[in-house]
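Protein in question filed below.

…
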Amino acid sequence: MKYIISYSGGLGSFMAAELCRSKFGVENCILIFADTNTEDEDLYRFIKETVVYLGVEFVKLDNGGKNIWDVFTKTRFMGNSRVDPCSRVLKREPLEKWVSENYTSDNSVRVVGIGQHEKHRLTRIAKAFKPWEIYAPLIETPMTRQDIEAVLLKAGIEPPRLYELGFPHNNCGGFCVKTGQRQMALLLKEFPERYRWHEEQQEKLFTFIGQRRGTIRRTVDGEIVYMGLKDFREFLEAGGRPDLYAEPGCGCIA
């Protein structure tokens, strides 16, 4: 039986791979990374080092070099917290295509890196992955972020830098259409040039589709207002304070 691990370059998928390798053997595990081409540079360093450390087969799908804004332009749609063509086109569909062309549900199991705090997602993921069996080793063996980082440091591998900067995940360079004010404010603070690039791409998209509807929600006089990245940056630069309540992770798997 082959254990196919959706490898995002985050702490969860790394630890899921480590637990699978230890339990089922190097020869029975395979890592698959679907590149959005919108990633933080340090993600590639982390993947390279962990693949060497794990010693298991690794497959990279780069989707012809397309990034998330290429997808939004082609679909003529600004992805949001409910509809995410970016992860569908760049992650889910290429992963499903590759797995279906190389394995069957009779000879493989799909492995996901979600932990106890995301246990509620397991039913939806299992439904999306049918007929494959789903295995979530971090639910079976709960571990904290500190536990996982200790494993990495023992192996001589630095954790991805986005976590240390306060980002909740290591996907899409800290950007995500599913997140909100706190993460976008952090992206502007830590990576202003990256934020500006996303802002420019979004403005081009708004012009192309003839509709201006951002993904960052603010409540103004009791009404929800959807802001674009340009609007949100100008709001912060004018002294506005972002809503710092906790936000969910991106949840790209399903």
